[in-house]
Structures are given as structure tokens and as C-alpha cells.
């Protein structure tokens, strides 16, 4: 029992950590903090979705935010005011134009539509590896941005979609973040996840062991797109207004930065990266607004948060190349040592720290 708890404690500890943060928000009754943490929980879902593909396959994808855009618009099409859709989104099918669907139906749409898009795209590009695969996913992001910016009758182009019910708060976002963590962990320890990680560490050896790398990558790509799409659906129903502009380079950069800062090869890294980067960004925003000292206000120049985030990323890459988590999962309970066996002199390292050490 002790060994079972030690082996599978990480996702539950991460859920407790985020639950404590959500509880602190509830007790503080601070509306601004509540908004910040709701957005942070949504980004946990998105970054955990990134981790499912990037962390397990080792392929950097710049296109996942495109799936977030698809998921957000799917939720907007389902929940926006019908009178607005009939005027501004005249290209939508009648069943979407004339009806306003409940929250869970919208979330289902934001899960299924990106997953189908990922299945079609992944079948074509998952044969690629390394830089070629990354460039292909970046091209997908550009295509999605161009289509959603110019398909006026369906997406309203660069105009805003309004009238989306704002039903997502910190506890709703937390519940979905916890579910995303659990799904990512179950995939990580599944047969698919283990074989995909084996191909990440040594592709030649994995192929020699009859691992179907294309199939494993495609499964991770589709699950990643579904999770990121749900994050987009929650984002749309958190803001209540939607444009295509947020789903491009800035959001791609900051979500990948969160994964890198935390450590892209562990689920713990994905979650702690979001928390750490959100704390840094919010602190820099606070300094940009200015601090009053002795009647005078001292403030950082606008844009300092991007510079500060870049510096933090550079420092972490220099001093902790495997991120804050060092590629390990969070743990409180350690595995028991069998009777008659001696305890190891040093804690076991994951594959990533071992390679870094060499």
C-alpha cells in the first residue's frame, strides 16, 4: 500500500496544491485575485495539455494554441446569444444560429472539435520528427489564425463575439484543472504513454522493440488538443467576449515558457511552471502599476513583464536546464525498502536528469 501511494501520489498532491490556492482565493474575497486565479487554472489545463504531447514525445509543438482557438470558438458558437449569431454569424448552421446550448454541451464541443482537427492534422505530420514537426505545427497555428481572422460569416473575423454567458469562476476552472491533471497522469502511466516516452528517450531502440511511434504520437497529439480545446472553451465562458487575437504568438510563447520553466518532462513541472510564471508576471504587473513611497510613485516601464519573464526563463535554462521540477514528480511519501535490502545511497533520478548529468 505504501509503495502504491508513493508511486501515484503526484497528481493528487498537485490537486491539493491547486485546491489550497483556490481556497485562499475564496477566503480573501478579492475579486481581482479571483480573476487572476481563474485565468491561472485555465492555463494549467492548457499547459498540462501541452505536456501530454511535448513532455511525452519530446517534440516541441507551436500549434496547440490553434486548438485552444478552435475550442474557444466552438464554445462561443454554442452559447452566444442567438440574436447576435443570426446577425453576425450568418454562416453558422441553423441548429447553432437559433439555439443557445448549456455549459456542458459547449465544453463537449470545445473538446471534440479540436480533437477531430488534431486527428486529421496529426495523421499527416506525426511522421515528422524534431524541427520539421515543430515547423509544421507552427504552420498550423498560422493557418488557424488566418482562417479565423478572415471567415467573417462564421467567426466574425477580427470583430468580437459577444453575449457569451460568463459561467466560469475559480472553482469551475479548478475542477477542470484537476480533471486535466488526472487524465494527463493516467496517460503518462498507460501503455501508450510509456511507449511514447521510450521513443522520446531512444527512437531507434523503441522502433526495434516494435513500438508504433506514429500511433503513440497521434494518440498524445489528439488528447493534448482535446485538453487544450477545453481550456479554450472555459476561456471563452470566463471572458464572455471572444476575438481571435489572443490565440497567437504571445499566448504560444507564454504557455511554452511555463512548461519550460517548470520542467517539460514531468507533470509536476507543467503545473508548477504555471504557478511560478503567473506569480512572476503578476508581481511585475504590480510594479508596472507603481508603488507609492513617501508621496512619490515608483513604477517600472510598460513592457517590463515580458523582459522580466525572458530573464527568468534564461536564468532557469542556465542554472536548472530541466526546470524547477528537475524532471521529477512531487512526492511526500517515499517507497518502502524491502526487508533484507539496503537503502540506496542517493535518490533515483529520472531519465532527463541522468542525461543532463552525463
UniProtKB/TrEMBL annotation:
It comes from the Bacteria. It is a multi-pass membrane protein. Keywords: Cell membrane, Membrane, Transmembrane, Transmembrane helix. Pfam families: BPD_transp_2. The chain crosses the membrane at residues 12-29, 35-54, 61-80, 100-121, 128-148, 168-187, 218-241, 253-281. It is found in: Cell membrane. InterPro entries: ABC_transp_permease, LivM-like. Its main location: membrane. Residues 339-358 are annotated as: Disordered. PANTHER family: HIGH-AFFINITY BRANCHED-CHAIN AMINO ACID TRANSPORT SYSTEM PERMEASE, HIGH-AFFINITY BRANCHED-CHAIN AMINO ACID TRANSPORT SYSTEM PERMEASE PROTEIN LIVM. This is Branched-chain amino acid transport system permease protein.
Amino acid at each position: 500500500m505504501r509503495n502504491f501511494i508513493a508511486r501515484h501520489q503526484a497528481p493528487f498532491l498537485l490537486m491539493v496544491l491547486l485546491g489550497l490556492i483556490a481556497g485562499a482565493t475564496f477566503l480573501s474575497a478579492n475579486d481581482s485575485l479571483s480573476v487572476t486565479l481563474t485565468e491561472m487554472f485555465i492555463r494549467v489545463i492548457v499547459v498540462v495539455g501541452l505536456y501530454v504531447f511535448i513532455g511525452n514525445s519530446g517534440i516541441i509543438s507551436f500549434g496547440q494554441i490553434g486548438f485552444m482557438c478552435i475550442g474557444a470558438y466552438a464554445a462561443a458558437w454554442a452559447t452566444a446569444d442567438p440574436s447576435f449569431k443570426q446577425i453576425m454569424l450568418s454562416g453558422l448552421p441553423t441548429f447553432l444560429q437559433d439555439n443557445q446550448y448549456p455549459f456542458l454541451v459547449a465544453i463537449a464541443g470545445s473538446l471534440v472539435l479540436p480533437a477531430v482537427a488534431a486527428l486529421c492534422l496529426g495523421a499527416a505530420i506525426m511522421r515528422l520528427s524534431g524541427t520539421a514537426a515543430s515547423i509544421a505545427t507552427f504552420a498550423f497555428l498560422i493557418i488557424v489564425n488566418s482562417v479565423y481572422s478572415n471567415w467573417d460569416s462564421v467567426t466574425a473575423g477580427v470583430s468580437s463575439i459577444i453575449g457569451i454567458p460568463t459561467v466560469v469562476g475559480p472553482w469551475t476552472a479548478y475542477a477542470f484543472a484537476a480533471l486535466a491533471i488526472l487524465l494527463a497522469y493516467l496517460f503518462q502511466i498507460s501503455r501508450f504513454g510509456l511507449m511514447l516516452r521510450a521513443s522520446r528517450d531512444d527512437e531507434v531502440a523503441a522502433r526495434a522493440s516494435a513500438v508504433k511511434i506514429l500511433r503513440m504520437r497521434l494518440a498524445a497529439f489528439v488528447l493534448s488538443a482535446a485538453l487544450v480545446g477545453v481550456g479554450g472553451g472555459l476561456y471563452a465562458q470566463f471572458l464572455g467576449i471572444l476575438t481571435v487575437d489572443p490565440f497567437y504568438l504571445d499566448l504560444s510563447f507564454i504557455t511554452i515558457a511555463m512548461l519550460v520553466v517548470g520542467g517539460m518532462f514531468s507533470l509536476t513541472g507543467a503545473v508548477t511552471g504555471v504557478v511560478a510564471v503567473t506569480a512572476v508576471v503578476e508581481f511585475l504587473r504590480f510594479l508596472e502599476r507603481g508603488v507609492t513611497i513617501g508621496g512619490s510613485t515608483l513604477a517600472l516601464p510598460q513592457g517590463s513583464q515580458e523582459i522580466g519573464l525572458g530573464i527568468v526563463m534564461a536564468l532557469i535554462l542556465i542554472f536548472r536546464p530541466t526546470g524547477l521540477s528537475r524532471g521529477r514528480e512531487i512526492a511526500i511519501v517515499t517507497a518502502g525498502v524491502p526487508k533484507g535490502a539496503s537503502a540506496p545511497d542517493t535518490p533515483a533520478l529520472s531519465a532527463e536528469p541522468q542525461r543532463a548529468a552525463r
